[in-house]
Each structure stands twice: as C-alpha cells, then as structure tokens.
Amino acid sequence: MGEAGKVSRYLYTVIVLFLVWLLLTASTDPQELEIGLILSLVIAAFTYPIFTTRGLANLHPKRIAYAIAYIPYFLWAMIMANLDVAYRVLHPKRPIRPGIVHCKTALKTNPGKLALANSITLTPGTITLDVDGENYFIHWIWVPDEVFSAESDEEHVEKASSNITAPFEKFLKVIFG
C-alpha cells in the first residue's frame, strides 16, 4: 500500500474518532473540541491499520446517505420487534415457538457481517448465536410456519434469510460494500 493509502486510512480514522467524540460529549466548547481532535489524532496514529482498509473511500456520498437512512430503518425495526415481543410476553397463552434457524448473507466484508449480526441481536426476539463465513445461526422467538414447513434445507435457509437478514442487507450492502 502506498503512502497515499496510509494517509487516506489515517484521515478516515481521525474523522470517525472525532465524530464519535462529538456524539459522546455533545459539546461545542472549543477546549473540548481541541482535546477531542488531539485524542483522535493520537489514537488514529496507532489504530488506523486495523480500523479501515479503504480509507476516505468510505466517505462516498451514497454510502453516507444509506448509513443515515439505515438509522431510522433500524430504529423502526427495533420498535416493531419490541412490540411483538411485548405482545408475546403479555399474551395469556404466551404464543412463542422458539427455534434456531440457519440464514445466509450476501455480505462479503467483515465489518458488514458484524453490523448485520449486531443488528439482528439488537432487535428483540432474535439473537445471533454464530457466524461462520456467510452462514448465520440465529435463535428466533417465533419461527413462522413457512420456515418450519420448509421441505429442504435450502428452502429453510432461503425463507429464514428473507425474514431475518435480507431486510438489513439492502442497506448494509451499500454501506459496507
């Protein structure tokens, strides 16, 4: 990797760390901004090789737009899942049909796969148990009939994936490549 690639990766790391600083401090005080920038510069100097492989290319406008759109989409999915789990907990007969399902992902990058696994786990009613390459094993509080009644393993994977991973993947493919 050339010197330009290292600089790009370093600058991207500084930008992300500084944005995290801004989000965590929620302050525009000049002293806090200076400290945040200094810490971002120092931490990035040690972590940029493991932080990103693409550098500033990650800041493509389309990726940023999808990342911004993913936040309300994910929050909506989380709210709906919370309501579904609350219904199942409060219902007198507690209608649950738990099971472990096998899903596949089309995501290729490790950060994308990590974001998908975390999105699944943070959504109530599902927990990512294991990720092995493109295979995800997920505990699901309510496995629908269509997944239970799948006639083959491939059909089971396809139906489970279309319910669990596919909705998140349409955003994460663009964000993480």
Please name the defining characteristics of this protein.
elongated; 11% strand; 2 domains; 3 strands; 177 residues
Mean pLDDT metric = 92
Coarse shape:
elongated
Detail the poorly predicted runs.
Answer: none
**Helical proportion?**
55-70%
What's the tally of helices? 7
Distance between the termini: 20 Å
Overall strand count: 3
The gyration radius over C-alpha positions equals 20 Å
Task: Provide the succession of SSEs.
Answer: HHHEHEEHHH
Q: Work out the count of structural domains.
A: 2
| Share of β-strand residues | 5-15%
Determine the structural class based on helices, strands and strand pairing. mainly alpha
In short:
The protein is mainly α and 177 residues long.
What does this structure look like?
65% of the residues lie in helices and 11% in strands. The mean pLDDT is 92. It contains seven helices and three strands, in the order αααβαββααα. It is elongated and about 55 Å long. It is mainly alpha-helical. The two termini are 20 Å apart. The chain has two domains: 3-59, no CATH class; 61-176, no CATH class.
